[in-house]
Amino acid sequence: DAGVTQSPTHLIKTRGQQVTLRCSPKSGHDTVSWYQQALGQGPQFIFQYYEEEERQRGNFPDRFSGHQFPNYSSELNVNALLLGDSALYLCASSLGGEVSNQPQHFGDGTRLSIL
Amino acid sequence: GEDVEQSLFLSVREGDSSVINCTYTDSSSTYLYWYKQEPGAGLQLLTYIFSNMDMKQDQRLTVLLNKKDKHLSLRIADTQTGDSAIYFCAEKESSSSASKIIFGSGTRLSIRP
Question: What's the Rg (C-alpha) of chain A?
């Protein structure tokens, strides 16, 4: 039973570039949430996708956008990259959308470095 | 807004019990979680407790919840070197219907021989 998988594992970009990160949820899960974890900090919620729509958004600018596909996988896009976007980006999946009390399961993340 | 606070470091001797503490501000939180993060890895869900419970035990792990004081603790019995990691306390936000989770900054647990 595959858990949450994310790709790529590491990525290096320069300021001003754009990046796309990918996530496949745990088998049977239909909800994907994205988090940003800066070094030495806890994860910060970016947004959540359910039924191919953004259901809730954290305090992140519009440069951060996402998408969910019919197979429940998801992408996180970040435009006009800044040095401060360097972080571990974590994807979490769960079942039942925004009203669910099911726990979220995390992938191993994508380490994004901005030069 | 909601906030979760934890101490940054904890050092225990191998074989002793570890107790990691956490305080939160949202008195309406429905679920509280403990996640473990090893170096270079994502977050592993260790255990979670519903807000109408006081205690939950799962093998070496015991979670205690004091709703009055908004205090959550994780006790790891017979701590082993493999328990070295960062432990995150988290709460499910109750101000909306979404399952947004708010994390503390993590407690780094180190094990002394």
Answer: 13
